[in-house]
Amino acid sequence: MTELFNELFANQNPEYVKIWQNSVVGIAGVGGLGSNIAFSLTRAGIGKLIIADPDIVSTSNLTRQQYFLNQVGLPKVAALKDNLLNISPFTMVNPYPQKITPTNLSLIFGKVDILIEALDEAEEKQMLIENWQQLYPDKYLIGASGIAGVGKNELIHIEQIGTLFLVGDGITEIENGVYPTAARVAVVANMQANLCLELLLQKGN
Amino acid sequence: MPTITVNGQEIPWEEGMTIRTVLNKMNYSFRMLVIKVNDKLVKKEDWDSFQVPPGADVKVIHLISGG
To answer: What CATH number does the domain containing A152 carry?
Structure first.
């Protein structure tokens, strides 16, 4: 195991990997954003990921989400856990196949260092942000708002208000002829993941 | 005269000003919002009662579906 660990992280900064191995990150929702975030955080060597989502993998998910044809019909959290284990056994994954509510929020995610909001509906995003920030005003929360469409890289940015960060263009909704596409969704997801890794290093130092 | 800042824009502060007053003044009608006053979150259920203090920094963020 130690040998595999050394080989896997051979070209990574050992100090960083050490901090990330000692970190716990929660991902609320494992669709287009969450599944991509989980892939990047596992590759970085995050010690523990807590993932929650009640959905099942559908064929149309494959245009944006990190699942495969032979996983259609499986619960997303179970399929994602399998995929992450195939990348690295050094990230422990705790899957919760359930919808996040104000009552189970702290039960599922109470132990995380950072929570990442990767939900689909604006209503759900609001519920999560409001309740989480009231429960844990000092913990970093990284959300996303405005991810649909193609191109327009220059509109994607990060807004920080205290411990809350929001990544996205803040305008593009999925509606009337505007569709989410893999590249742009993954850009936003990886900006969330990249920010998370940076904040963990700041905390760890 | 005391003022407050809403998303970087300075507006006059008024006695008894709530989050709802601010939203109306700014013509923000978007349904899904997150509001922070001086970096502290104010829940939707408190928008009618929360008194915005003079000098407050109010941030109104639009939440858009898609994940």
So the answer is: 3.40.50.720
- Distance of alpha carbon A105 from alpha carbon A115, whole angstroms: 11
For B54-61, what is the mean pLDDT?
95
Q: Where exactly are the structural domains of chain B?
A: 3-62
DSSP state of B17: -
Beta bridge partners of A196: none
In terms of CA atoms, which chain A residue is nearest residue B42? A130
Contact residues of B toward A, CB < 8 A: 31-34, 36, 39-41, 43-44, 59, 61-67
> Nearest-CA distance from A21 to chain B in Å?
26
CA distance B31 to chain A (A): 9
- pLDDT band at B30; cut points 50, 70, 90: confident
**A164 part of contact set with chain B, CB < 8 Å:** yes
pLDDT reported for residue B29: 81
Q: How confident is the model at residue A171, as a pLDDT?
A: 78
- Give me the domain span that covers residue A121: 2-204
Residue A147 to residue B67, Cβ atoms within 8 A: yes
Which pLDDT tens digit goes with each residue over A89-133?
999 999 999 999 999 999 999 999 999 999 999 999 999 999 999
Q: Burial letters for B14-42: b for 16+ Cβ neighbours within 10 Å, e otherwise?
A: eeebbbeebbeeeeeeeebbbbbbeeebb
User: What is the count of structural domains for chain A?
Assistant: 1
CATH class of B3-62: alpha beta
Residues A36-65, mean pLDDT to the nearest whole number: 98
Residue closest to A54 by CA, chosen among A23, A99, A92: A99
